[in-house]
Amino acid sequence: MEIIDNINHLLGDNIKQDIEKGSKLKIAASCFSIYAFEALKKELQKIDSLEFIFTSPTFVPDETVDKIKKEHRKFHIPKADLERSFYGSEFEIQLKNKLTQRAIAKECAEWIKRKAQFKSNSGKAPMQQFACVENDITPSVYLPLQGFTAVDLGYEQGDAISNIITKHNEPASTQVYLNLFDQIWNDPEKIEDVTSQLCDHIASVYKENPPEQVYFFMLYNIFSEFLEDINEDVLPNDLTGYKDSLIWKKLYNFQQDGATGIINKLETYNGCILADSVGLGKTFTALAVVKYYELRNKSVLVLCPKKLANNWLNYNRNLKTNIFSKDRFNYDVLCHTDLQRTSGESFGTPLDRINWGNYDLVVIDESHNFRNNDAFKDKETRYQKLMNSVIREGVKTKVLMLSATPVNNRFMDLRNQLALAYEGDASNLNERLKTTKGIDEIFRRVQATFNIWAKLPPEERTTDSILKALDFDFFELLDSVTIARSRKHIQAFYDTTEIGSFPERRKPISYHSPLTNRTDVMGFNDIFRELSLLKLSIYAPVSYILPSRIAKYEELYDTEVGGGKSKLRQADREKSLQALMTTNLLKRLESSVEAFRITLNKLKTKHADTLSTIEAFNQRGEDRGVADNSAYYENAEPDDDSFLEMEEDVIGGKVQIKLSDMDVASWEHDLKVDIAIVEALLSEMQKITPENDTKLQHLKKQIDSKVHNPINADNKKILIFTAFADTANYLYDNLSGSIQNRHGLHTGKVTGSSTPTSTLKKNYDFESLLTLFSPRSKEKNIILPNEPNELDVLVATDCISEGQNLQDCDYLINYDIHWNPVRIIQRFGRIDRIGSINTSIQLMNYWPDISLDEYINLKERVESRMVIADMSATADDNPLNAKASDVSYRKDQLQRLQEEVIEMEDLKTGVSITDLGLNDFRMDLLGYIKENGDMASIPNGMHAVVPSAPDKGLNPGVIFTLRNRHQSVNINQHNRLHPYYLVYIADDGEIIANHSEVKKLLDLVRSTCKGQSKPLDDICRLFNQETDDGRDMSAYSNLLKETIGSIIDLNEDKDIDSLFSGDRTTALIDTVAGLDDFELINFLVVLKGND
To answer: pTM for this one?
Structure first.
């Protein structure tokens, strides 16, 4: 008997000495590693045979195979580990990192065919583990043996405290073990032959691998937790039949992925924000989700802005214009404003009797309208009503939010929207998130980072710079509860063959139009100077309350915000309203002379009415009081079409001020000054008739030119957008007749505030009119098959700037420029859509006839009034653009609007959350596993070879997928995939993309590998020549060492940064020592092909 300690005396060396030519080797062990074969290769070539028994079931059929359910995988996983350990156990890292696995496996396979036979325990009864070397002289038995690996042989370090083996060579004892082995070997009830299965398995290592398999195995490892957490409760249930619905079949592949992801997130986190870019069909994606829940007998409410209601109502009614009428949608539609109404009806629903708490799913279109959660005294805001009555009350409510701009310029915007999903109680979401910090802390830190970033010089204020500065917990949060993809992402990473492409965007046409060619009318700048003189004191009665009476009103109407930090005073609210009114006047002037005239007239009437109230008080002592409606403009935008009518819709709850409590003389004086300015401006505007309205006449010529010279064959369609219904009416009245007379074309008008109109003799509803304008995209042949007519020109307000597919049209004119560029992008998104039949599309913008600098300064002066009012009014960060005062930035943005069509993601008005999530990859993996089965038995260390494509960012090098074996060591501070790491290294050792650039790397691998289901023979042949069929992998092994070095270096750099950041440091925490701490999962070789 001999003791082998595997320190001074190694088992491998001892076996080498015992093996001689003709020896027979008999081993019963839990696993077999090719690196053990490599270590004893010379000696193993001499033996007569190897008989190997796997002591636990290995390469035998599973008792249960369930690819998704976690509980059924408990037996499957350890068994898979045994099979995968054939290619090296977790402690043979150094050997595996030499990347020679493929060459060794090939050699081992050839040897097995000649010399070895493998059998496996087919039952659950445990077997003793030992090895016998049988030769002509004295047989030797070694025990106990854990496995047959380089660690067990003593050549590699394991994790066992000791690895002592006893060698027996006394004939009496060795014969007992030989007999036991032979007895088991020859018992078919206990074991079965697995040699052929093993040979097939080895072939998977030395054969060429399809790039797609490497991509999916990468995902399989990275998202293993996701797969384990998946069960039928959080995935769409196919038995509902939702995939048979018309809406599901109508979706493109990326929309189906989005809908599946949304359902998964709603079931897991109770809420989701869909923030796909303009033109990617968020409405249809949301409808597919709604249908899924309706099929599960759930009650659904769609909450949308009033201007978008028609779009949603079209699909839940039994109308000819409803292309999904067979789906029988039955969701309710209400408007955002209905939340604050307590009487009357909304689309037939009596608001006083509605059961708000009975909805299982609420879909909020334009959810960014609920980004503010400020409180008002004695008044429930829309946000609070939604939270209290719809979400918290009654049944458990899931929340799907739709918005192209969920983050405006405060990250609290996003937090407030997400709070709707977790009922305002952060702990409801925190316990489900895989983050180190709670949601409130995540947003606090992110906002602080954003505030610092916003103060950087423009050249440093890049998307990259803030993404690097943001906490990875924030990305984890976004990934959990948002789906946000850009058109660039869809074009790059989805097969769009069936869908078609986006049309080419022509350079925008910009026209700077004077108000009129008459010389006796003041110009734009002069009018603005007059507008600047307006005090608009009619909207600020609180400012005239006598000092002795002011306390009474403050007590009644002022509101605490920010948890009692400050007060939103009524006077501040009024200042903000005055600025909004000035802006509204200016924007109406920009839009059209007519819209400006109508507004001035309304203002004149309002002043006259108020002055007569004051006169009654002065002469007869009648104190009817005056109403202050400023609170009702809280969420208004100055170019909302119904801006001036807002206060007319308000019933009760107004701030009432007695004239006897006011300095009436001062107020009357200021009102008279204002009305004089208004009357003077009105008399100027009356001089401009349609005939000498320069912009209108230019538009007529532009229409003539487009009709005579179409940019796509025979396409005469033109879509004209304006912010205001008054302008739309003016344009329709002055264009439709001449277009019909001169070109024989029909014109239509939709404004949202009046019945749709057209030059066709029949009356059409909203959706029918749009169908006549865009017959192909709206499927007119199904909806209105007997209608021969079409519309070629459509005048519209922003009631159709979202949620409409009008891509039959190829020419869009913005008759006025919205100050928010997002609206311009949304408008253009009606025709700039995937699947368009047009080769190219044209955008035309009308600008005021002043220089860009003057235009910017004018906007700055108007908005500065709003900034001052806002800063005094709220305790939170300034909700206006963080760069509102950055003139150079604004100039650049407007300049770009004139030169090109801007993507939403390129606006740089803040941080776009587009393309940061990893949902598409999870859906990819889920689809693959469902189709092809589990990947647990696939060995680590596999590779595929693809050709370089520098134009796609694919330069020669290697993309490594690694796993940090020490999960507790938290390089995780900088890696959202921890413990997995992706790194792209060039052939020369330069890091192309480090492990913090997760999304970029996964996108790259996806676009390169997905769909490549067979090895690329030519490039594989080249790789095999370079590496001598995988025997000489030294160049790649060195790149792997440099890759691991880069991870450690980057971590150390970030640690040092953290010491000086004033935040909790990541330094002095356990760190990674080096190469041995990482296991190679797989790698993708990017090889330069032969030119």
So the answer is: 0.70
